[in-house]
Each structure stands twice: as structure tokens, then as C-alpha cells.
Amino acid sequence: MLRYLKLFRADLLSAQPARLYRAWMAEFRTPFFRSYMINQPELVKTVLKDRPMDFPKSGRIAEGLRPLLGNSVFLSNGETWLRQRRIIDPAFEGGRLKETYPAMWEAAQAALARLKVEAGAGAEVEIEEHTSHAAADVIFRTLFSLPIEHDVAQAVFHEFRAYQRTQPILNLAAFLPLPRWMPRFHRRSTRGAAKRIRALITELTAARQAEIVAGRAPDDLATKILTTADPQTGETFSTEEMVDQVAIFFLAGHETSASALAWALWLVAAYPEWQERLAAEAQLLGDVPDFADIAKLRLSRDVFREALRLYPPVPMMVRETTCPERFRDRDVPKGAQVVLSPWHQHRHERLWENPDGFDPARWGTGNGKRCAREAYMPFSAGPRVCTGAGFAMVEGVLLLSLILRDLRLEIVPERIPEPVAFLTVRARDGIWLRILPR
Length: 438
Fold this sequence. Notes:
Layout: H1 2-10, E1 25-29, E2 34-38, H2 41-50, H3 59-69, H4 78-88, H5 94-121, E3 124-126, H6 127-144, H7 151-166, H8 188-214, H9 221-227, H10 239-270, H11 272-281, H12 298-310, E4 317-320, E5 325-327, E6 330-332, E7 337-340, H13 342-345, H14 366-374, H15 389-406, E8 407-411, E9 419-421, E10 425-427, E11 432-437
Parallel strand pairs: 2-7
Antiparallel strand pairs: 1-2, 3-11, 4-7, 5-6, 8-11, 9-10
Helix pairs in contact: 5-6, 5-15, 6-10, 7-8, 8-9, 8-10, 10-12, 10-15, 11-12, 11-15, 12-15
Organism: Alloyangia mangrovi
């Protein structure tokens, strides 16, 4: 078990045997718990869609993220989770996406300007740094109406970068049944970064609450969430509750978007024929933000979906059984861990045609359409599907198209990225590209 713990902390993906890409189900036993990975679409549907309340988020996984995320919607269960979603979901409805689009456009233009400076110098660029910067800018502009250049926004961004590099998905508490009073063995650097991030977010949240009381708050996502009352209880979020939610918005919206966009840019650099098709399609974008343009970018959307298939930012999700179950003629005891793995299901040899190949055209085929319904879950599925899934798709498609409209990307042959899973799927030594003006 210590060997597995070391592997999991180093890289979640390397700890998995290759046969999982063909298995419908697999069991992992320790002296303290049993874990079952399920890839069969019918079983995944049972857990995520048919009976989600019977399979709550696993407390073992929450152990590692609790110092930063508190009791956010990402970690909570039951009535607490239902209440949080009733308050949060209205902020991300379709109409709100259109309202946030101008702020997203401004962040995309700023990111493009930074990359053009690099292109002018003809440098080899570590693109993950740029996509992280861009995704953080999108979050701050849409959530708090602040550009990334704002002092507090800058501080949060840099602290999150430090946190991402020091926080493994699993820590020792995920493997051992520790009582609540025992220390959780978080790294000192991780605890420190989480504390500083929460202090900065508290500062932003308190300032926004004061602006709301004074009647001068901007109409952005933070204002919408802070002023939305639970329709059943009439309660709004307290400052501490809002800090929990902002932490997960930033972690989910910044980390996952940065990861997905970086891999998408590397893939189009590796497949220049697709890059040229996207560059031609991107000419449909005007010079001013128009939300209707997003619907025109069909190829860009297919490429971004394919990047999410091959490199899902969140590679695994863990649920817990609340009662004994029987899966594939095997007894699954109460309290067992149920692992759902987008990483394995998206590359499953018995589900997808050419599972490891980059093929954005697959979404128009019979196999692609069927798998999109049954075996594609980069944002999870069912009632716990990511609140910001629509937001992320607009952001990714816009940034991908704008960058390729003005710039040409080339891979660096001696620096082929190797995917590893920390908090999200990133490259072990970064993703390096050569950027040139068109």
C-alpha cells in the first residue's frame, strides 16, 4: 500500500495498470477499504444519473482538498449540496453566459496580446503558463469584474500556482481511516498556500458584500451569487460559505480550463492540417464581442471536445456506496469507493473507435455520437455535472479560435509533453510550443 501511495502522490495516471483500458470493472483492495473502478456505461449511468444520492462524494478524496475548499459545492453532499446548487446554478444559466461574454472576450484579447509579444521574438513558449494566466483572467473578470493585473487578483493567481504544484490529489488520509482529531498530514507549503488564498478571497468577498449593501456592486457572477436566496429557505451565502464557493470556482474554472486549452493548443500544433482549418474558421470572429459568433465555430468546438476526451482535466472522480450493491455479479460492500475515470473511459478500447487517436471528426460519426451520450464525461454527468460546463466550452472555443486566427503554432520535437495528474492533467515538464505570427 505504501508503494501505491507513493505512486498516487507522484502521478495518479502512472499508478494504473494498462488492462484498465479494456476492463468494465476492476477491484483494488487495501486492509482498510475496497475500491472499484467502473467503466461499463450502464454502471456509470447508475452511479451518476439514476441514483446519484445513493453514491455521494467520497470523504476520502475531500481530505486532501478540505484546507482550501472547506465545505464547497465540490465536496459537500446531501441537503448541504442541494442548497448550494439552488443558490449557485442561476448564475450560470444560459442567459448569464451571454452577459459574461464581453468580460471573457477582454481576457482573451489580453492573452492574445501577451502571446503576440512572444511570437514577435520567435521564442519557444511554455504554453501552460499562458493558459493559466488567461484562465485566471477570465475567472476574475467574470466573477469579480477585476482584470488579472489587479493586486489581489495577481496574489491569488500566484498562490494558486504554488498550491497546484504542491497538492497531490490523494494524501495519506485518503488511504487510512483516521479519526477526526488526528492531523491530516498536509504538506506545510500546501497548508500555507491554502490559508493565504482563503484570506485573499475573504478580502474580495467582504468588499463585494459592502458594495452590494451600498448599492454600487457590478452585475457580475459574484454579485449574482451573493444576492441569490435559496428559494426554499430564503437564506443567502455567508462570507465563509462564499469563500468556499469562490475557491472551487477558481480551482475548477482556472485549473481545468488552463489544462484543457494547453492540450488543445498542443494538439493543433501536432496536427497542422486541423490548425489551418481552425484558423480559416476563426475569420468568422468579428472585431467586437458578439456571443452569436460562438455558434459559428463548429470545428473549434469539435477540436476542443476532442482535447477534453484525450486529456480530461479531472481524470478521476470518486463516490462512496451508502448501502451494499451488486455490480457485474460482484458484491460491493457499504462504504466502498467507486471510482469513475474519464481518463480510462474516454480511451476505452471496447467503446471508442481509434481511442488513442486525435480525430475531431469522430463527433459526426455513429460511434462518436453514441460515445458522446454514453462514455464522455469531462464535466461529470447527471445532477452533479459541473455548473460551469457551458461556461468552459465558450471560453475554450473562443480562446482557441482567437489564438489560431492570428498566430501559428509548431511543436518542439525534442519536447513532447508527458501527461501527469496533479490536481488536473498537466504535462510533467510543461507544454512547449514555437509561436509565430500568421
